[in-house]
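Q&A log
Question type: sequence-to-structure
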Amino acid sequence: MNAPHGANARPRNPGMPLALDLVRAVQVNASAVERRTATLPGRRSVKKEWQAAWLVRALECIDLTTLAGDDTPGRVHRLCAKARNPLRADIVAGLGLATPPRVGAVCVYPTMVAPAVAALEGSGIPVASVATGFPAGLTPLPLRLQEIREAVKDGAAEIDIVITRAHVLNQDWQTLYDEIRAMREACGDAHLKAILGTGDLRTLRNVARASQVAMMAGADFIKTSTGKEDVNATLPVSLVMLRAIREYFEATGHHVGFKPAGGLRAAKDALNWLILMKEELGRDWLEPDLFRIGASSLLGDIERQLEHYVTGRYASLSRHALA
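Response status: OK
Response body:
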């Protein structure tokens, strides 16, 4: 059940030259997308031991995140301790797991990368850092690139960059492509996760086109949201992005990962996204190197549901504090 950690388990997406004809040809049937995703929670469900197994997999795909203005090294250290041991020992034993699970990564601001790297030393859990003027992404490009370099220098293995939403709204695909290519170069060996800020993009067609451009520019993951927009990860937006990933894979043979983020708090949310991933992209995309969930409080509810499976009793969320 336990999977390899980190996006580094597979070859990176090298990108490709920008194909504007392909980008402009992208269309989305919004009504069909909404019908498809509206029926998903009712049509697909997993129960009992299967649900427990799927929840463990969801846990292993979490980017355990703290992106607060009052973050401190102490808070990050406590979060990393939870990342190392996300389930209590009695729950691990009750589930019959040979190896205790770990989360997919810990995600922090650039100034918190060094404390996170130190706290996770020897665990194999990568540190991801938001960068490029998160969450708005509107600082000058040279400063955004330098922020990436500083985070990588401090040990970040993954960089969650923010695209300039104005380029999408203005259909300026060449500038968007060039910016992401520059950001990928600044990442060096660190993997690049491109945050589209889908709640700001207005249409599903814009989401689909931005997804294609980000992958052409070499994004290793595409991510829905910063978690700071009014609307964050939704199933319709996720379906559109997954279809774009599938089309890119069929055209190039390169795997690109997917990360929903923002508003995912309940275990049932994680199950819905796992089912969508399985149905749209297949078994390969149910590993931490191709699927991540950006979340913090979600882990507490997953642990609570797994404790219920083991003991038959529901505990209060306060028993499963993150830090």
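Response note: The beta strands are 62-65, 105-108, 127-130, 158-162, 191-195, 221-223, 257-259, 293-295.
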